């Protein structure tokens, strides 16, 4: 069975940056299970997997435009420390939920200087090329309910 829209796909994958550093990997663990064709993976990776089948190995370099998008420097903002009242500690590298000009989202703390906190609302992988090594472990038809929900049920998926 080939990978196509509304099929459930199990993959093992390793994601590296252009320097060869491993950013994420399923090696040694359970495969990633996703519903194909509904945007559960970044667009460039879904495109590369389309039409492949169990046992196929895929190497693909995904540009930022088809990954987590280009970096948007306007999402780097300085916020007064008091905006984070209730947080005892603020340190560079922390990720927290915050309101921004673009609505609520995850931000990373870049720097804390006196009373000013610099936060970055970009996805941690925005602006980066993503190098995926993928092996397809299984492909099956999704159930009508999975298609309706837009995600996989059972092992590796939602259990509700
Ligand atoms: Zn569901």
Radius of gyration: 19 Å
| SSE series | EEEHEEEEEEH
- Coarse morphology: elongated
* Contiguous runs where pLDDT drops below 50 for at least 5 residues: none
Question: If you had to describe this structure to a student in words, what would you say it looks like?
Answer:
The structure is a single chain. This protein is mostly beta strands. The protein folds into 2 domains: 86 residues, Roll (Chitinase A, domain 3); 48 residues, Thrombin, subunit H. The chain has 2 helices and 9 strands, in the order E-E-E-H-E-E-E-E-E-E-H. The strands form 2 sheets. Strands 1, 2, 3, 4 and 9 form a 5-stranded antiparallel β-sheet that branches. Strand 6 and strand 7 form a beta hairpin. Bound molecules: zinc ion.
What is the topological layout?
Blueprint: E1 7-16, E2 22-25, E3 32-35, H1 43-49, E4 57-62, E5 76-80, E6 95-100, E7 103-113, E8 116-120, E9 130-141, H2 144-149
Antiparallel strand pairs: 1-2, 1-3, 1-9, 4-9, 5-8, 6-7, 7-8
The protein binds zinc ion (ZN).
């Amino acid at each position: 069975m080939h990978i196509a829209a509304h099929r459930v796909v199990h993959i093992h994958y390793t994601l590296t940056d252009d320097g060869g550093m491993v950013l994420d990997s399923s090696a040694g663990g359970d495969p990633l299970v996703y519903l194909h064709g509904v945007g559960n993976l970044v667009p460039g990776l879904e495109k590369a997997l389309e039409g492949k089948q169990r046992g196929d190995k895929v190497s693909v370099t995904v540009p930022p435009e088809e990954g987590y998008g280009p970096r948007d420097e306007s999402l780097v903002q300085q916020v007064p420390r008091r905006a984070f009242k209730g947080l005892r500690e603020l340190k560079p590298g922390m990720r927290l939920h915050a309101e921004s000009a673009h609505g609520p989202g995850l931000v990373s703390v870049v720097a804390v200087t006196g009373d000013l906190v610099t936060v970055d609302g970009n996805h941690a992988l925005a602006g980066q090329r993503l190098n995926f090594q993928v092996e397809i472990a299984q492909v099956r038809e999704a159930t009508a309910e999975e298609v309706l929900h837009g995600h996989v049920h059972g092992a590796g998926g939602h259990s509700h």
